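User: Can you write out an input/output pair for a complex, sequences first and structure second?

Assistant: Here is one pair. Inputs:
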Amino acid sequence: GAGVSQSPRYKVAKRGQDVALRCDPISGHVSLFWYQQALGQGPEFLTYFQNEAQLDKSGLPSDRFFAERPEGSVSTLKIQRTQQEDSAVYLCASSLGGAGGYTFGSGTRLTVV
Amino acid sequence: EDQVTQSPEALRLQEGESSSLNCSYTVSGLRGLFWYRQDPGKGPEFLFTLYSAGEEKEKERLKATLTKKESFLHITAPKPEDSATYLCAVVVNSGYALNFGKGTSLLVTP
């Protein structure tokens, strides 16, 4: 597609629920990143994929967070047993590779009540 | 530890009043410095990439410059539509992910 597409745009979850956030990157982009952005803060790195390989998951806050990109295109970020502190905007970005050309999606705003 | 610090946190300008946003960085080795613009409810939108000290890039009313310690985003004669949060981020030599500052929230009033 023309840009990075994320769905849903908004998600309200009850505490303890599992959620799945989807990212559809730009076609042909090798690299895919997930970021978490709290209100009034800059995005914080969560995890990085090169094609289907998850090369870095050092930013995932806990083992409740899991990400996958099984065919090297669409990626899903899953959060199990959501907590209030998980409330944030989750951004996905993709790039061809190298240090440049990172394109972001509009994000998914997750609210845990 | 790699650090990116943006100042000021917030800036209010009158239309036409030029100013500069600062991004200071402490990294082991800089691969690239990026400026993004973020509007409410949207993802960051790419503005510039700078790779080496002395480099400058321009786009409309915006000009980004880079030294070995900091980058400036100069806004000349801003308009209300320039109101947004401006984010600075670095990628280090050994890395690939953007490391962001907290951003500067800019409001331009008519």
